[in-house]
């Protein structure tokens, strides 16, 4: 994936969308093997599985969305959803944080993973 920073939900959404396209391209590729039923079936099956995968990712976004926090972005004033303790505004890519101690610090995905390992052991 690109280095450009974007909000996590947007990243996952882009990923799901590209999976959907890849699935369709694979299925379309099967049309070129009409003569060989086995190869065509394999193409169709793989393409279908990739599309299913993309649907699963969309469901996952839905699950994640329930865990997001709505905040008003200080950069553009719009209401954006953030995931985890550190995220980036969906509209203007302004780094956001819920943790006062991290405020003003440069955006770093590491803050999330550290927190995640701690909170996971508590929730399970
Ligand atoms: Zn913003």
From TrEMBL:
InterPro entries named in the record: UPF0295 (IPR020912)
Highest taxon, organism lineage: Bacteria
Family membership: Belongs to the UPF0295 family.
Organism: Gottfriedia endophytica
Pfam families named in the record: DUF2614
Protein name listed in UniProt: UPF0295 protein J5Y03_18650
Lineage of source species: Bacteria, Bacillati, Bacillota, Bacilli, Bacillales
Transmembrane parts of this sequence: 12-33, 39-61
Primary location group: membrane
An annotated GO cellular component: plasma membrane
Keyword line: Cell membrane, Membrane, Transmembrane, Transmembrane helix
Annotated membrane topology: Multi-pass membrane protein
Localization terms from the record: Cell membrane
